[in-house]
C-alpha cells in the first residue's frame, strides 16, 4: 500500500519560497501557468 502525505500550507509555502529564491524565472512561470490574475484582479 502506498502511504499518503498530507501537504500543509506551510509545506507549500516553503516549496514556493525555495523556488522563488533559487530560480525566479521558474517561479514566475509557475505563477503565470497556475494563477489567473484576470480572475483575481478585475478590469476597472
In words, what does this structure look like?
66% of the residues lie in helices and 0% in strands. The protein contains 3 helices and no strands. The protein has helices spanning 9-22, 24-34, 37-40. The chain is extended.
At a glance:
With 44 residues, this protein is mostly helical.
Strand content: under 5%
- How many distinct helices? 3
Rough outline: extended
Give the overall pLDDT as a whole number. Answer: 85
- Low confidence ranges: none
Most strands sheet: none
Q: Provide the succession of SSEs.
A: HHH
Helix content: 55-70%
Structural class: mainly alpha
Task: Give the number of domains.
Answer: 1
Termini separation comes to: 52 Å
| Oligomeric state of this protein | single chain
- Count of beta strands: 0
Radius of gyration: 14 Å
Layout of strands and helices, then pairs:
Elements: H1 9-22, H2 24-34, H3 37-40
Helix pairs in contact: 1-2
List keywords for this structure.
44 residues, mainly alpha
Amino acid at each position: 500500500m502506498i502511504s499518503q502525505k498530507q501537504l500543509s500550507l506551510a509545506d507549500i509555502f516553503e516549496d514556493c519560497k525555495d523556488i522563488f529564491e533559487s530560480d525566479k524565472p521558474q517561479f514566475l512561470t509557475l505563477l503565470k501557468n497556475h494563477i489567473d490574475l484576470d480572475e483575481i484582479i478585475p478590469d476597472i
